[in-house]
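Consider the following assembly input.
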Amino acid sequence: MNSVRVLAVACFSAVALSSCGADSEPTGETAPAPTTSVSGTVTVLAAASLTESFEQLGEQLTAEYPGLEVVLSFGPSSGLVEQVLAGAPADVLATADTRTMGNAVTGGAVEGEWEVFARNTLTLAVPAGNPGEVTGLADLAKPELRVAICEPEVPCGAASERLLTAAGVTAAPDTLTTDVKEATSLVSLGEADAALIYRTDAAAEGAAVESIEVPEAEEVVNDYPVAILVHAPNPDGAQVVVDAITGESGQAILADAGFLEP
Amino acid sequence: MRASWSPDRQVNRRLAGRADARVPVGLVIPSVVGLGLLLLPLAGLVARVPWSRLGQILSSPAVLSALRLSLMTAAITTAVCVICGVPLAWLLARTELPGRSLLRGLVTVPLVLPPVIGGVALLVTFGRRGLLGEWLYETFGISLPFTTTAVVMAQSFVAMPFLVVAVEGALRTADRRFEDVAATLGASGWTTFRRVTLPAVAPGVLAGAVLSWARALGEFGATITFAGTFPGTTRTMPPAAYAAINSGDVQTAIVLSLLMIVVSVTVLVALRDRWVRSG
């Protein structure tokens, strides 16, 4: 269930070797390199919920810029910010809420403005077949149900708290997951009866996860900001990545994944 | 056991003393680098301890519940390891079990397996939809993940091989003639094991128990994967430190780390004498 994080860590530790990351073949010969100067490795730290979208975008970029290697490392936004503040050699930071990005700014890792490139809302996710017979947020208070919620410090956890407060529910979680992907795995494995995860994560799991409509979810929206880090080793490459995320190709991928427009 | 002072030892001491005068630089430099790598992080940790807030953080519910849970689960795990591991070690050392060497190899797999992988294995075996877990859940309504029991299982999975290896080693080097004599005097197998074998390998059992305990106390990967992490039921000290550092609460993470170092070092020092001899 931690495969995403394991992979992310593997990629992260392979930064020095620059041998990890978007490993797919270029998808076609049709993509010419618009600018020739961009090359080298760009390291992107991104919120776990961006895993599928950014992997796809990374593949596109590698096809478009043959000299560019996009290394992706996914994890909880708050943890990524801690890595950046501790000196992780990264170029781009994309978090799942503005509070965590704000911490990066306060810590001096990001200068000036960030750009919001997507928005996301939560959903009540249950395993296929809904074995816990969950019908709404109020069921999260049932002690007999196995409930997974993100750590309150992680964006999905902070959003879950706001959502539960809005709905007037005091949840009885059985585990607080490190990031949203861990909660997602627990639901798709059937080990949790219910979890609060992003719509996009539920969609990425396909048939293994069912979503239960939560009216209040519309009101709790997370803004996803992206920024180039102050100590980016490859600022030119970083700019290309940020342009792609905020540009047409990135927005199309994000929309496909179920993210809302900024 | 008391160390005996022999002339051999005196000679060794003198030789060692003389060698000190001409230690090759080629050995000193890597040693210092290695020592720095081992000790500097500990020093760095101690240097960053927020002493003025120490009492406040130590007495916070998050830290106290993690400490209590860690000590409790590590103690239960050690008991489980001794109760199951000593007989297992005896089986491996003293019987002509078919496929014994293969079994011995398999028992030590968790020693080299990344703990997270152990956690995944536990989850797909004892999870609610796991190989055995599904049957447990359907038949008895027992669901193991996210419980304190799961924490103990995860800790035992990674810690028991240490005990088995230590006790098996002690059994192999113990003089078997005492057991034979006991048997010829009419002692049953169980009595022989309890009155002769066990006392002979007691230092090995203790060493194994200490190793298991230390390993259980530091367990992280298998625990967080199989048992999850929730304050009070499954969040032991290492996951609590991880949660703290991930949420930007560096001070709590440092205090938890300091606490783990103090607890481990205290126990190791308290048991050092016997520990060194049995090793």
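Confidence is low (pLDDT under 50) at residues 1-33 of chain A. Ask yourself how this observation constrains the way the partners meet.
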